[in-house]
Design the sequence.
């Protein structure tokens, strides 16, 4: 059965339209997950609110531990990597990664960048093949079909590919690069725009995004059903 890893990175804890200063990206992820489980209640879910509980920022000790071969790590190194190990295990278990990611100052929230830094791990999600010095990185999460769904919200408009502000959008491109580096290359994007404009423009964007979410749920459930490995007897 497919397993979903659901991340919310918005600093806003509430939902747009329901709570004061609520989050549009959380609305999208909630819509995706609720629609998914309404149709496939047997599938499993792991939820992390990294917007309210950010992962630790990597430091000198983390780098020393992560780049020391596991068999040579000292006890403090294993302790240092405990959080990272859990985050990596959650990602490896997922068939569908759902990320609620608002656009903050042209890029991703700091909490989401901290999560990326914790899960891009040599020996865990990417390998290093020194026999190929010009292309040494081997993505380890390409072992089976995985999908990533980036559900974003933006204050302005025109940040989609081809839009007037697209060159200033470093959110989805950065996420796609990092996820592709570890082997997750099937990425789907839906965004709400116009939060700062409001009114009819925002309402239309919200309605369109919700419809796109519903269609994407159907698309991915069909794709995963087709590609699903046989269950053990």
Sequence:
């Amino acid at each position: 059965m497919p397993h979903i890893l659901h991340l919310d990175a918005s600093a806003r804890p509430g939902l747009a339209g329901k709570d004061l200063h609520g989050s549009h990206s959380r609305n999208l992820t909630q819509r995706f997950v609720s629609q998914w489980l309404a149709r496939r209640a047997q599938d499993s879910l792991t939820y992390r609110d990294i917007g309210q509980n950010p992962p630790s920022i990597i430091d000198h000790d983390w780098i020393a531990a992560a780049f020391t071969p596991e068999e040579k790590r000292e006890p403090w190194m294993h302790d240092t990597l405990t959080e990272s190990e859990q985050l990596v295990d959650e990602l490896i278990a997922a068939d569908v990664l759902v990320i609620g990611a608002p656009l903050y100052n042209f890029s991703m929230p700091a909490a989401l960048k901290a999560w990326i830094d914790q899960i891009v791990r040599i020996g865990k999600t990417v390998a290093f093949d020194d026999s190929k010095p010009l292309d040494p990185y081997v993505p380890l999460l390409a072992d089976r079909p995985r999908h990533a769904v980036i559900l974003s919200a933006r204050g302005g408009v025109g940040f989609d590919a081809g839009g007037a502000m697209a060159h200033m959008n470093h959110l989805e491109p950065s996420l796609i690069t990092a996820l592709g580096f570890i082997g997750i290359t099937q990425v789907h994007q839906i965004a709400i725009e116009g939060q700062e404009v409001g009114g009819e423009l925002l309402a239309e964007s919200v309605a369109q995004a919700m419809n796109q979410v519903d269609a994407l749920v159907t698309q991915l459930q069909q794709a995963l059903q087709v590609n699903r490995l046989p269950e053990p007897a």
About this structure: The first strand starts at residue 3 and ends at 8. Strands lie at 3-8, 44-49, 96-102, 126-128, 137-139, 147-153, 186-192. The chain has seven helices and seven strands.
